[in-house]
Amino acid sequence: MDLDNEDQDVEDTNEELEALKEEALLLVDKVIKGATDTVRDLKKKEEAAAAKYKIPNIQWMECRDFTVGKGLLQIEEYMRTWELHESWLHWINYLSEEELEYSTRYHYRVRWSIPTCRKPIPRATACVFFILEISKVRPDTLPIEVYFVVETNKLIHRPVESRFKEKWLKDVIESKTCLMEMINF
Fold first, then answer.
1. Is residue 37 classed as helix, strand or coil in its secondary structure?
2. Which helix (H) or strand (E) holds 157?
3. Cα separations in angstroms, 132 against 56, 84, 149
4. What is the pTM of this model?
């Protein structure tokens, strides 16, 4: 009789183990599905955020097509991608040409200001300096290289790597205005 009881206990234990294994497999499947869904949702959110904060750019002309006038037009086109309030006005000046050993650089200055009805002539302006670089050694079918620097800053920006911020212009104008208020003429 003891053998029958032992066999029954072993059978019960085996059934309990099988039931436990089945529950464990269901739990593992549920956890894996939950983790997969979470990763999928995070990827969707990340892609949406990347699309929202995409750095705007334009198709820059090829080196062989460059002229000073076309460079000015391309800068205008690029600046239209910036998210600025409509009250900002600007004008562009071609400054100079710089011959280097392996390239030629063309310098432009864009002055920004916010004229108002009360003060149509702004007290201060903020400049953004553009450099359009034409390589002498790379194939002339490649696009021109473009860099820009905001006045009073040393950081050199590239259109594909930097998102322009209106705050940069405001900071320059604010610092100039503060300086003028401190000086008695």
1. helix
2. none
3. 18, 23, 12
4. 0.70
